[in-house]
Amino acid sequence: MNTFFLGNTEEEMEFMPIIPLNEDGEGQEEDLIPEELALLPLRNTVLFPGVVLPITVGRDKSIKAVNDAYKTDKMIGVVAQKDSNVEEPAVTDLNEVGTVAKIVKLIKMPDGGTTIIIQGRKRFRIKEIVTEDPYFKATYDILSDEVEEGDSEFDAYVSSIKDLAGQIIALSPHLPSEASIILKNIENAPFLIHFVSSNLNSDVKEKQRILEISNLRQRAEVLMKLLQLELQLAELKNKINNKTKQDLDKQQRDYFLQQQMKSIKEELGGDSNDREIKEMIRKSEAKKWPDAARDLFTKGIEKLERMHPSTPDYSVVYNHLDLMLDLPWQDYTKDSYDLKKAKKVLDQDHYGMDRIKDRILEYLAVLKLKGDMKSPILCFVGPPGIGKTSLGRSIANAIGRKYARLSLGGLHDESEIRGHRKTYIGAMAGRILQTIRKVKSSNPVMILDEIDKIGNDFRGDPASALLEVLDPEQNSTFYDNYLELEYDLSKVLFIATANNLGAIPHALRDRLEIIDLSGYSIEEKVEIAKRHLLPKQKEMHGLENVKLSFANKVIEKVIANYTRESGVRELDRQFAAIMRSLAKDVALGKTPKEAVSEERIAQALGKPKYSNEMYKTGNPPGVAVGLAWTYVGGDILFIESSLSDGKGELKLTGNLGNVMKESAVTALSWLQANALNFKIDPKVFQQKTIHVHVPEGAVPKDGPSAGITMLTALASVYTGRRVKPYLAMTGEITLRGQVLPVGGIKEKILAAKRAGIKEIILCWQNEKDIQDINPDYIKGLKFHYVREMNQVLEIALLKR
Questions:
Q1: Which of 105, 361, 578, 688 is most buried, judging by how many CB atoms fall within 10 Å of its CB?
Q2: CA 147 remoteness from chain centre
């Protein structure tokens, strides 16, 4: 026998057919097959006539059947199981057609197992299972093959089967090359079909189907189809394996060549990185830049060509050149000189602010007539929430420039403005140039936000670094430490914003054109709410399709009862709360009324947070109402004074600053000097202790503008005359009794209007500030303009 494969157990998938010496599969004499045939079920294969298989028998029933058969006539019926997962097959688990086999050899293994070598003889069909115990026995019918003599088509099938099988063997690396030689030497056509079928990679069902076909030509036809499928699969596997191998070979080849190239370049003195450098040179040719910048770039490129990419300085030089290429040296956006369009954009984005809009239009007019000018440095000063930053964006839109915002709040490192020197690790350009690099324009509108909140520590003074940036005469040659070149910032329209002008260093303030943005009046807030806030909040809360209307009276209630601010941020938050409440109703299936009522507002926002009642009640002698300015807008403050027995001391409480304390001392000194004019006994100043208190002691208070209010409170308590109700005042005093002007008038007047004040005392020099306010916003207010304290007391103090 010629061994072809090594086989294992009956329970395993792979079997090893062995070719017998006689291809007919017949013995020298006729086999004697008993009338009742013992059956051997196989799990994972089908035995074909003429094919020899070695099988290790494992099941007890199978071992007994094999032993009994071997002792007698050595004939056994081999049938395939329908389901290979069944451990103990029943009659229904066996296929009806099988192969009668002769046990050629029975070998007892050392581990106690039994291995048999069987040779298929003839096909048979089970007629009846005679017994199941101790193993299956059955009666049978022998099946003969149907062959048509002289069938040329059958001969062609046999020849094709040989060719296909040979191709599959050639494409399958795990099959030995001897297999193709054996195939060529098989002359018997039925045996060739059986041998190839036995070696198919198809499943047991397909092999069983071939075994059950009696007509040899039909059997050959089915085998052909299965071989063609197997050949396609083998070709596909081979193609995938070859492609994978080629990919691996290419990767190894590329790696090997790269390593060789690296070694060669190291021998030659470094990697030139030609591609990167050529790309940089190509970009530089299209760049519009000054001669100094072009010369510096050329030197940098030459230095880069001489350096190896692995050296630390390579990335420093490369990043510096990359910044130079990215900066828009002489790239400017075209300004739009359509003043009517610009005015329309400004009016559409912001309500009021007429002075600022006029200033922007003046700038545009000059630019239109002259064609070019150094951009001014504007500084918007005002309380939070009035639209300083958003106004900058509107200006950019109005004149068609790009918009950039630079937040300076908390900035404490000078290098953030001027850039770091390249000698430092992680050095980079300053934030001014980085912003210009980002917007890709040398004439953007750049907002320097919160310029009053710049820090100052051991790392330098950023405010001083801004002096060069914000000087129209100097910023055409702004020097950045990282760039190491002068850069022209004169076309940039810088707009600074600040809450507190006093916090800006004097030298920096001198370079700014200060534009005061005072707080909004109630009337302005109503318009802003209707035009901007309410539509925005409706959209944000998904209520665009819900009809809602807010009457002016309702909006005024929200402003008066739930906000105390110069801007509209808190008002915006209150409208957001109202919209959330309405959105909840809509989501629950309720339809809110179109006209939002005051009751619905109270339901959404709760009880009013603020009230004006405290300003309307009558006060005892010694209490005066003053007007104060804070960085969030105007405010009302009470100044209280009382007398008690003592030694003429002056007590001041209420978290007062030095200037405010000095105002109190000045007021008391003037009152002592003029005591007889107001019928005050001079001895009182020696015998009584005067206590001045400003409520809300947790809030720091300072400034000279409460001077006349303090003097009025002191005069009131010493004379016993009450201060006129609904009266407020603001102004600084001197020892001579003169009243001096103060700032923040508009915010103070609007705060007084909100509080229900009806009369206001001011210095005569502040009359010009009142004239700047829209008369509609101060309707109902009476103003007294004074020069001396005598006039103040005459107006303020009631008769006894």
A1: 578
A2: 77
